Amino acid sequence: MYSQTQLDAIDSAILTHLMESGVDHVIFMDMAGNTIAKHDNGKSRLDSTAFAALAAGNFAAVDAMAKLVGESEFSLLFHKGEKSSIHFSKVNEDTLLITMFNKDISLGLVRLKVAETVQKIILSLDGQSS
User: Fold this and answer.
1) Contacts of 119 (CB under 8 A, 6+ apart)
2) How many domains does the chain have?
3) Residue 112 is assigned to a structural domain of this protein
4) Hey, which of 5, 18, 77, 105 has its CA 20 to 30 A from 25?
5) Tens digits of per-residue pLDDT, 32-84?
6) Residue 33 domain flag
7) Where in the sequence is the domain holding 110, given as residue range(s)?
8) Is residue 130 part of a domain?
């Protein structure tokens, strides 16, 4: 369970580092598919509950594939579409950060901003101030 202080810090990190960069949608979730925090640009019609459940399954399947090829894990996944892309990043053993963005935003910028956000979230989960 997360404290209100931790949830506020997570929201702040997502808003500051990702949403202000122009991404479309961000979901911070546990590995079971439960949404902890979510933000969108106001234009999204995404069913984030269904998406989080599917994302958890997707990440679990890829985790199993990693083990089959001798890797302990693949901590980052990326799916590129014609108009939209999805970046999955493992925050810790229990949580994922999913960032959806359109073709107007570069993958490099998203990766940089996700890395900054993940660090801020880890600090908040560890009970430290950022």
Assistant:
1) none
2) 1
3) yes
4) 5
5) 999 999 999 998 788 999 999 999 999 999 999 999 999 998 888 899 999 99
6) yes
7) 4-125
8) no
